[in-house]
Amino acid sequence: MKKARVVSILFLAVLIAVAVTAEAQQPKKVPRIGFVDPGSPATTGHRAQAFVQGLRDFGYVEGENVVIEYRWAEGKLERLSGFVADLVRLRVDVIVSSATPAIRAAKEQTTTIPLSWRESPIQSEWDSSPAWHVQAETSQG
Q1: Alpha carbon of 35 to those of 95, 97, 102: distances in Å?
Q2: Does the reported pTM lie above 0.70?
Q3: Dihedral over Cα of 131, 116, 107, 99: its sign
Q4: Cβ distance 122 to 62 under 8 Å?
Q5: Are 97 and 106 in contact (CB under 8 A)?
Q6: All domains of the chain, ordered by start, with CATH?
Q7: What is the per-residue pLDDT across 26-62, written as a single tens digit (0 to 9) for each?
Q8: How far apart are CA 134 and CA 16, in angstroms?
Q9: Distance CA 14, CA 8 (A)
Q10: How many CA within 13 A on the CB side of residue 137?
Q11: Closest CA to 60 of 85, 93, 98, 86
C-alpha cells in the first residue's frame, strides 16, 4: 500500500513537472498585421517604411516580434477587396490601410478585426455609429 502511494505521488509530481515545462515552453503569440496599400512598393513603399519605423519606435521589430502581411494593389483599386478578404481569412490582428476602398471593404467583411487608417473621408460617417469598432489615426503636420 505504501509503495502504491509513493508511486502515485511520484506520478503526480512528474505530471506537474511536465505541465509546468510545457506551459513555460508555449511560444508567445506574435501579432500579425495586414498592411493594404493602393500603390506598389516602388511608388508608395515609403508609407510601409514609415509604418515599420513607427512599430520599431514602440519595440516591435518585423520578423522578430511582429509579422506584417503586405498587400500592394499597384494602382488597381479593384484588387483591394480581395486583399482584405485574404487578410480576414488569415485572421490578422489588425488591418492597416491608407486606402478608403480597402477600409470600406474591411468594414463590410469583418466586425472582429480592428481597422486603422490615416485621414479617411469616411471617418465621420462611422463616428456616429454606436457599433463603431474602427480606429482612425490622423496625422498632423
Answers
A1: 6, 6, 10
A2: no
A3: positive
A4: no
A5: yes
A6: 32-137 (3.40.50.2300)
A7: 678 889 999 999 999 998 888 889 889 989 999 999 9
A8: 43
A9: 10
A10: 13
A11: 93
